[in-house]
Specification:
This protein has 280 residues and is an alpha/beta fold. The chain contains twelve helices and eight strands. The radius of gyration is 18 Å and the shape is globular.
Amino acid sequence: MTLGLYPGCSLKGSSREYTESVLAVTKACGIELIEIEDWNCCGATAAHNLNKELSLALPARILSLAEEQGLTEIVVPCAACYGRLTVTKHEIAEHPELKESITKANGLKYEGNVGILNIIQMIDKYITPNLEGRIIKPFEHKVACYYGCLLVRPHGILQFDREEDPQSMDELMLKSGATPIDWAFKTECCGAGLSVSRTSSVGRLSGEIMKDAVDRGAEAIIVACPMCHSNLDMRRGAINDYLGKEIDVPVLYATQVLGLALGIDRKTLGLQRHFVAVNI
C-alpha cells in the first residue's frame, strides 16, 4: 500500500515528533508514504485572510504536484493544511472559472482527481480494519480527545465526522486501549495562530480546554493537529498562569498513542520532544 504525504511546514519544524509517529505507525502497518516532491506552504493560516487567489493557488499547486507524481490519494496530517487543500479542491470544483487563473499562476495542470485524507481518515480506512490482534500494549489511560476547530470544519465541505461531538478519534483511542472521557471542549478553539502575537489569549482559551479535561479525570489530551499540540503543550506556562496552578497532564498525538499500543518504542514516536513530559 502506497499513499502520498503532504507534511506541511509544521511537521518539518515545530512538530517533528508528529512526523516521526506518523511514519513509524504507517511503516509498522505496511503502508509506504511518499512525500510530494517540491511541495510548498499551503498558506495556512494567513493567505486566506489576505488574498483569495493566493489562498487557492498555493494548495492547488500541491495537488497539481501530487497529480504530476502519479499519486491518487494523499495523507495530510496537519488539520489546517487538510482544511486548506480540501477547501481549495471544493472551491475549484464549484467554480470552474477559477481553474484557468490558478493553473496559469502555478504553471501546472490541475485535474482535481487526488483524494485527500486527514490522519484519522487514513487510519480508519487503511489501519483499523487490520488492527485486531496487533495491539500488544494497550494505552490504559483516561484521555480527552481534542479535535480543535479545524479538523471537522467547515463541515459542509470536509464532511468529516460530527461537527459538535465528533467520535472518530474517540473510537481510535478505544481500539488503542484507552478510555475517552465525555467532555465539553472537544471542538473549542485553542487560540490557533495567536500563539506568538497574543500568547495570553492562547493561555486563556487553552486553559479552559485543559481545565475541563483535567476536571473530568483525563490523564492525557489527544490531538491530531500540530497547532493544537503546540498551544496545549508549548504554551503550558501561559496556561498555568491563567489557571493559577500547575497542570502536568501531557498532550499526545493520536499516532503516538496508536504507536505505543502497537509496541513501537517511545523514542521512535518522538515522545521525548514534548515540553510537558509524557510520564504515563
